[in-house]
Amino acid sequence: MQTLLLNSEDVHHNAEMAEIIPAIEQAFAAYERGDAKMPAKSYIDLPEYNGDFRSMPAYLKTDEWDAAGIKWVNVHTDNEEQFDLPTVMGTMIYSNPENALPLSIMDGTELTMQRTGAAAAVATHRLAIPDASSLGIVGAGVQAYSQLEAISEIRDIEEVVVSDLDDARVNQFIETFEDRFDVRKGSISDAGHCDVLSTVTPVREPIVGPDDVGEHTHINGMGADAEGKHEIADEILLNAKLVIDDYTQCTHSGEINVPFNNGVLTDDDIYGEIGEIIVGEKKGRTDQDGVTVFDSTGLAIQDVAAARVVYEHAQERDNGTPFDLLGLA
Q1: What is the structure's pLDDT at 329?
Q2: Which fold has domain 128-298?
């Protein structure tokens, strides 16, 4: 009974986006149907280190499989400058729900990046115009890459506009994708006037205003994952078809957390959760819709679903490092 250790490269190699996207969709559906158990994300704030820890456990069951796990993740804003470490790091423990055997311990940072992109793809599939061919991205960090990789799986993306204050990051992003897409640097407004816009920044004051988006743009608000973060202007949120991933998390730490807790947004302004659309309880995009917004905080069920895909492929390909964690050999 061995546990499979998977580092960042192993996770990346086995994270088949074409399979992670439907796995994330299944996870949303299971959660909506009551076939998942997911306690609220818990936070340990460490202001003395400009950081925090978050624990994210979950179990879910679909018609074909069930899975369980927990992710331990941090956000330490001074890491890159002071320690030459990533701002966000994570460790995923993927377990057998039948007997609790830890099947794998894997890098949760790469896993988070992949499942976050997949969640945006699921929402884009349901909420963007069917013939969307342009994607704008605000923020050229690591999350930007999986946004493009995932969204281009479900829409025929041809044009990509990326906006970031850091020219080096923009240039690196362009160089990575210029052989596959018509990709260029642009302003926030340039990015926002694409058919689909993904925002992946850590800002606490809105940077995308009403004039920065097109009449039918679908927005994936991916950057807000903690109390006080806020990328998109309240006016956009108030006038858009607003879809969230989870009510408790979004009102606490999602894109809507600031206007909601200030009384600007209310429950009446939230159209529904993405799971309701997936299972058919509510409609996705209709011909009458203008701007649509998906507020994604990232759910533990997504990590578990993505971890399952990674683990199964790693086993098939004999990747990773097996070791006797429990000393039972």
Answers
A1: 73
A2: Rossmann fold (3.40.50)
Give the per-residue pLDDT at 66: 96
Helix H, strand E, coil C: the string for 2-34 is CEEEECHHHHHHHCCHHHHHHHHHHHHHHHHHC
Q: Where are the beta strands (DSSP E) in 30-87?
A: 36-37, 42-46, 51-61, 66-76
**Closest listed residue to residue 91, CA positions, set 29, 163, 6:** 6
pTM strictly above 0.85: yes
CB 322 within 8 A of CB 5: yes
Question: Any alpha helices (H) in 34-136, and if so which ranges?
Answer: 79-83, 108-127
From the list 298, 211, 293, the residue with the least C-alpha distance to 259 is: 293
Nearest to 225 by CA among 206, 250, 188: 250
Q: What is the pLDDT of residues 282-300, one digit of tens each?
A: 999 999 999 999 999 999 9
Which superfamily does 3-111+301-323 belong to? Answer: ornithine cyclodeaminase, domain 1 (3.30.1780.10)
Helices (H) then strands (E): counts for the chain: 12, 16
Longest dimension (CA), the chain: 63
49 three-state secondary structure: helix
Q: Report how far apart, in Å, the C-alpha atoms of 305 and of each of 68, 85, 244, 251, 295 are.
A: 8, 27, 19, 24, 19
Which residue ranges does the chain devote to CATH 3.40.50.720?
128-298
pLDDT (tens digit per residue) in 30-62: 999 999 999 988 889 999 999 999 999 999 999
Residue of 37, 41, 61, 71 with catalytic role: 71
E strand or H helix that includes residue 265: none
Return d(Cα 9, Cα 5) in angstroms, integer: 11
* 283 part of the active site: no
Give the residue range(s) of CATH 3.30.1780.10 domains in the chain: 3-111+301-323
Residues 314-329: tens digit of each pLDDT: 999 999 999 999 998 7
